Amino acid sequence: MKFTEFGFDEHLMEALGYMGFVEATPIQERAIPIIISGKDLIGCAQTGTGKTGAFILPTLYNIANSKGKGINTLIVVPTRELAIQIDQQIQGFAYFTQATSYSIYGGGDGADWDSQKKALTQGTDIIVATPGKLLSHLNMGYVDLSTVEHFILDEADRMLDIGFHDDILKIAEYLPKVRQNLLFSATMPDKIRKFAKKILKDPEEISIAIAKPAAGVLQAAYLCYDAQKINLVNKLIADKPNYESIIIFSSSKKKVSEIVRSLKSKKYDVEGISSDYDQKQREEVINRFRSRSVRVLVGTDVISRGIDIKDINLVINFDVPKDAADYVHRVGRTARANTTGVALTLITEDDMYLFDRIERLIETEITKVPVPAELGPSPIYNPKSGGNRGYRKGGYKGSGKRQGRRPKNARRN
Is the backbone of residue 102 left (phi > 0), alpha (psi -120 to 50) or beta? Predict the structure, then answer.
């Protein structure tokens, strides 16, 4: 289902287009219509399935159509990291709208408290908060939550696990009786259902299975140092002369430019694409790639969603995606329509924990191999320690002790 089918206003659609969002994920497809209708909802979906967009997008839509003043939406989350992450996503989706947001969490100084107080008292549209810090402000008596129309609990199971049950119920007492309640949880044990009954009214329920790459994708990962990546990519492409359609994903616009320059020096037909390109430029580049006049397309995640191009032979993740769902979207560019394809990811020491999260999300252990011997030694795979900085010539297994020298051009991320 495409986002154009939800009836979002032009400003929200402009933001989605700028971010490269075309097709909704399963959780978004099922949750957005329910949320727009105003019904309460229990959603069971893991992190990395697009659930944040599932409640942010319809909330922004509802805010655009609301005539109320003051705080419109309260999102409560278990950790400051998640509060910051969701607030950043809201700002991205709301870039072309008039909606405002602010995150409330502990760990700051007096200046942070004053900024939070200002956001809570001057009618910020969306507040994203951890329970403890929000209650600290509520106890001071200057926060008015009587205008809240949408109350959203994210990662509810985790909040209960770390003891926020009573805090959430206390926060709910400050809210108006008539409101929409949304609860999202990665798991749905009995305690979550019992808890939901205390807050939600006749909720709809949806449950989304874990998203996984298509069966036709051959996945593998190379253990490397950051300085080895460009040479490794050149070698991977050189070793696959029959691959006519290749996509390389990178985490930044700067890296896109570096990869394109390197590949062009090897006389490959390559073009780059990033958020620096306007919609028309992006479409022109993608059309050249689709018509095979460009063999290699290098880009940021702006091209990971919504591209309908068949017979992509190879996807290379130059950088490990920070969001596990992005890995599924990237890899999903190959092996479409029951075809086969190859997806290769370059993993540095500092990215190992991210790759471990991806494997846990897709419930698959991906084969990991060292770089070719002529490129030097590879790091040892150890995600629990964030990469133990050990390495070994010609391989990645071993005791973890240093055996030989780190390549001169190898550096940490």
Answer: beta
Please provide the DSSP assignment of 215-251 as one string. Answer: TTEEEEEEE--GGGHHHHHHHHHHT-TT---EEEE-S
Could you tell me the end-to-end alpha-carbon distance of the chain, in angstroms, rounded to an integer? 38
DSSP one-letter code for 391:
E
Q: What is the pTM of this model?
A: 0.57
DSSP state of 401: S
Q: Encode pLDDT of 345-402 as tens digits.
A: 999 999 998 899 888 878 889 999 999 999 999 999 988 755 443 333 333 333 333 3
Gyration radius (Cα) of the chain, Å: 23
Q: Are 371 and 228 in contact (CB under 8 A)?
A: yes
What is d(CA 35, CA 41) in angstroms, rounded to the nearest whole number? 7
Q: Which candidate, 189, 232, 259, 233, places its Cα nearest to that of 44? A: 189
Containing 64, the helix (H) or strand (E) segment is helix 51-64
DSSP tag of 155: S
The residues that bridge with 297 in the sheet, in sequence order, are 247, 271
Nearest Cα residue to 159 out of 77, 83, 73: 77
Instruction: Detail the DSSP E strand segments found in 34-144.
Output: 41-44, 73-76, 101-104, 126-129
E strands, 165-203, in order: 180-185
Residue 182, phi then psi, degrees to nearest 5: -125, 130
Cα torsion through 204, 210, 215, 217, rounded to 10: 120
Residue whose tokens read 């697009």 = 50
**Dist. CA 5–CA 30, nearest whole Å:** 12
Strand 378-379 relative to strand 367-370, pairing: unpaired
* CA 97 to each of CA 15, 60, 128, 176, 183: distance values in angstroms, whole numbers, following the listed order: 8, 8, 18, 26, 25
Structural domains in the chain, CATH included, are: 3-207 (3.40.50.300), 217-392 (3.40.50.300)
Give 81-127 pLDDT, tens digit per residue.
788 889 988 988 988 888 999 999 987 677 889 999 999 999 899 99
